[in-house]
Specification:
Length: 94
């Protein structure tokens, strides 16, 4: 392992039907771009985007809307697992 695991506080701002809005506390738009790109690859995503807000005042927010009965909470959980797995297998070549 290259580094200790980190915690990423996420606050649920809206959870209604097939819509989910999250605030990633203390994160930059770089993290959210990764999640947006991964979610955008899913067939069950109707719309996904992030809003960086003011860089000195606001934490960035991620908005997800799914098609049909797809659960946006399950999708973000699956993406988090995938990203963790990808970064967990990183090795340095010397």
């Amino acid at each position: 392992m290259l580094a200790d695991p980190i915690s990423m506080p996420i606050k649920v701002l809206q959870k209604e039907g097939n819509e989910l809005k999250l605030r990633f506390e203390g994160e930059s738009h770089t993290s959210l771009e990764l999640f947006r790109a991964k979610l955008d690859q899913h067939n069950s995503i109707e719309y996904v985007n992030f809003f960086p807000g003011h860089p000195e005042l606001d934490d960035p927010e991620l908005y997800i809307r799914t098609k049909g009965k797809a659960n946006p909470v399950k999708l973000i959980q699956d993406v988090c697992k995938d990203v963790s797995k990808e970064f967990g297998s990183i090795t340095l070549k010397e």
